[in-house]
Every structure is written in C-alpha cells, then in structure tokens.
Predict the structure of Beta-xylanase.
Amino acid sequence: MHTTTIRSRTRLRLAGALAALLVAAGVATGPAAQADERHGKEPTLADLAQRHGRYFGSATDNPELVDEPYKALLGSEFDQITPGNGMKWYATEPQQGVFDFSKGDEIVDLARAHHQKVRGHTLVWHSQLPGWLTSREWTPAELRAVLKKHIQTEVRHYRGKVFAWDVVNEAFNEDGTYRETIFYKTLGPGYIADALRWARQADPRVKLYLNDYNIEVIGPKSDAYHRLAKELKAQGVPLDGIGLQAHLALQYGYPTTLEDNLRRFSRLGLDTSLTEVDIRMYLPATEEKLAQQADWYRDLTEACLAVRRCVGITLWDYTDKYSWIPAFFPGEGAALPWDEELRPKSAYFAIRDALR
Ligand code: XIL
C-alpha cells in the first residue's frame, strides 16, 4: 500500500517533469491535445494559436457556404471568422432605414456552430456603400444622423455576437492625409471619433478597431494611425485596437518593420491584429515564389506572436478557390495557404512551424 503510494507519487512527479519538458519543446500536453495525438490527429492552426493566447481565423463569404468540403475545413481549422462582405453597408442597409442582417447572421450562426468568434467588418467605409447613400448630396446634419443610425442599429444587432468591430475602414491615404470620403468631405475628420463613440454606446463591451491596408510598415500611413490613435486616447475616445489588413504582395517586399510597428501601437495601450492576410504574386506561381510566400507567412505569424498585444491573425479567406485577388489584381493570385483544390501549400506548413 505504502510503496504503491510512493511509486505512484514518483510516477506522477516524473510525468509532471516530462509534461514540463514537452511544454518547453512546444508539444501539446493538455487532455484534448493528448486525445488528438492518440488518435493521430494533428492540432489545427486554431489549437496551436490558442496555446499562445491568440486566435487564428479566416474570412468567408455567403456564396461559398454551399461548398461542403470548404465549409468543413473552415469549421475545423479556425477559431475565428470574419464575413468578407455580409456585414458591409450595402448588404445591411440596402434602402435607407431598411436593415437586412440575413447575410451576417448566416455567418454568425455558422461560427456559433463551430465555437468560433466573429470580427465584425465593417461599419464605416467609402467602398461598397448602398446607392441611396452615394447618389445624392447630404447636409452635415443629415449625414451625421444617417451614420449614427447605421452604426448603432448594426452594432446593437450584433451585440454579444461579435467580439470586435472594424468601426472605420481605410480612413487614410498612402501619404497619411485623410481619404476624401463622403464622410470626411461632409463631416470633417471628427467623423472617426463620433463613429467610435456611437459604436461604444451601442455595445459597451465590443472591441473597437480602426483598420487599413499598407500600414504593416512604419511609414507615413501607419504614422497617421499612430498619431490619430494617440489623440483619440488623449481625448478619451473609445478605441481598442488597430487592424492591419496585411494584403501583401511578393513584388513589394516583406514589411520588415511589422514587429516594431505592432509594438508601438501596443505601447499606446492598443491591441493589434492582422485582419485580412493574403500574400499575392504574379501568376504563374512557381516553386520559388511559393517558398518565398511561405517564408513571409512564417515571418508575419512570428511577428504577431512576438508582440503580446497582437491578439490574432485572420486570413482573407483560406483557399485560392475563393480569394478576392484574381478579380481585383488581374494577373495575380495564389495568395492563400490552401490551393484551389483545398490542399495545404507550403505556406500552411510554415504557419504551423511558426505556431509550434
Ligand atoms: C473585398 C471582398 O473580399 C470582395 O469579395 C469584395 O468584392 C470587395 O471587398 N479591404 C477590405 C475588405 O477591408 O473588405 C475587402 O474585401 C478587401 C480589401
């Protein structure tokens, strides 16, 4: 009896030491991971990211949801989803004051079924606006009312269902000046603070983000966000994070200042996330280009893991089958970690390596 206890204690201690070693080596040890490994099941990107306290997500779009193999992978590999179009203004308020949340709801329901969290995208953007909004002139008072109603109705609808909102998308030009959108031209730069405040009133808990592309590097455009974020914080405007879209392209070079850039936003007390990641290339894709792409996916994953407040990474869909790139950048493509047949590419294994 006595010896058995001692033996089992020793065994326990040895097991503990082994577990610690495995943890140090980055090997899964939790009950779920152990069960998975017993059954020969590889941990998913989401499992691996969770060990770092991060999420790993993908955008998706309603028309793709009839594709069962696609849906299966979307539901199993990721723990976060962003609707690629379903929550944009043209989709959610197709006529003034007439709201339609069916597209976004479909994606929220799908995410719920797979225990995934949802990023709301996006409330205020110059693109994909409904015709009723862009086809006439508005006085500042009118447009303020329209904007407030749109934001608050949508944020209220998704309260408790999305954990973050891209409140304003793509507010700056490349040189760091304000983009001359209908909102900027009619309301001035204060529309951003107003939008954040209105969103906060409608959902006190959701994380509020500004989101843009080409702000991965330190430069005039990311400087503009840094400056604005600092001002907004100083004025007590609710802002929780900066979303770096990270639509990268091999021909433009890797954003080597990404990690430093993430860090300077952390120092302002803000979360960051990589919200729309893809890495496009001129077609045809060669082994060499795909290897470089894999390196970049590894590097950007490592950059996020290196900065405590970089909370997660979202691919702008996960398969080349449904990438937006070929339609928007003619001659370019192959931007995502899974190919058009849903087979994982080198990029996928590089992300796994980085997360291990
Ligand atoms: C893209 C969608 O993926 C496409 O389906 C749509 O036709 C155009 O918009 N930055 C953003 C995203 O913030 O909303 C864009 O999504 C890609 C660029």
Summary: The pocket of XIL is lined by residues 61, 84-85, 169, 245, 276, 324 (CB under 6 Å).
